[in-house]
Design brief:
It is a single chain. This protein has helices spanning 7-25, 36-42, 46-57, 74-96, 101-125, 131-145, 153-176, 179-186, 198-226. It is mainly α and 228 residues long. The chain has one domain (64-226). Helix 2 packs parallel to helix 5, helix 4 crosses helix 5 (101-125) and helix 7 (153-176) packs antiparallel against helix 8 (179-186). Keywords: Hydrolase, Membrane, Protease, Transmembrane, Transmembrane helix. The chain crosses the membrane at residues 40-61, 73-93, 130-147, 153-170, 201-218.
Length: 228
């Protein structure tokens, strides 16, 4: 039997996540930090802090896992973190003559900080709802959390991306329950700070194809193991 949804926990989670986001992007507080990589991370720390608070305060079971359903933690780490970091760094090297490895892992850590909240807490907590309701609730809250309320076509497209991302990342989470896996998918767009052009889009397609193929093969492998 699925547990009931705690509305108070969701409200507290979202209030804390939004407060941290507001402080990080709408105030001068980040200016006291000199490290640019740390500035990136504090923009996404809110959902993690919020999730940890509600886990403790509301005594909600914490099912967060980096490994998820994989037997070996190295598997999702290699496939969803090392692979994109290496491929994208190689492309950056041929384009700009440098390897932005630190930036790549900063972006991945940023995605992890978000995913601990959006998937590790919110998606798990909304699981009793029909899937379409869960997707729409998460997408709307996630979109508003970005605190970008400009009425523009670009923002409308961004909302569409958020909805599609909520569905897609949610599917990966349902399949793997691995925060390494959902972080890799989440970070795809954030890797490319200078926009998406032909090369970047090709890389995204390649990585998505590899990940989808890997998910299908690993799912088949698990089913085979289960019947042995």
């Amino acid at each position: 039997m699925k547990s009931k949804i705690n509305i108070a926990a969701i409200i507290v989670f979202y209030a804390i996540a939004a407060l941290f986001r507001f402080l990080a992007v709408k105030t001068e507080l980040p200016s006291i930090i000199d490290n640019e990589y740390l500035k990136i991370l504090i923009r996404g720390v809110g959902p993690t802090v919020a999730a940890l608070v509600v886990f403790v305060f509301f005594k909600i079971p914490n099912t967060i896992s980096l490994k998820g359903s994989y037997k070996d933690i190295f598997v999702p780490f290699a496939v969803y973190w090392i692979l994109p970091a290496v491929l994208i760094s190689l492309v950056y090297y041929f384009q700009n003559g440098s390897f932005p490895i630190i930036l790549m892992f900063t972006v991945l850590l940023y995605g992890l900080l978000e995913e601990i909240g959006w998937r590790g807490f919110l998606q798990e907590h909304l699981s009793p709802l029909p899937k379409i309701y869960s997707i729409l609730i998460i997408a709307v809250l996630w979109f508003i959390w970005h605190l970008n309320f400009e009425m523009s076509l670009q923002n409308l497209v961004f909302f569409g991306i958020i909805v599609a991302g909520t569905w897609g990342i949610g599917k990966v989470y349902d399949k793997t329950h691995s925060l390494f896996a959902v972080t890799g998918v989440h970070s795809l767009n954030n890797f490319f700070r200078n926009g998406l052009h032909q090369t970047e889009l090709i890389l995204i397609v390649i990585l998505l194809a590899i990940w989808i193929g890997f998910l299908i093969r690993y799912d088949s492998y698990k089913k085979y193991q289960d019947i042995q």
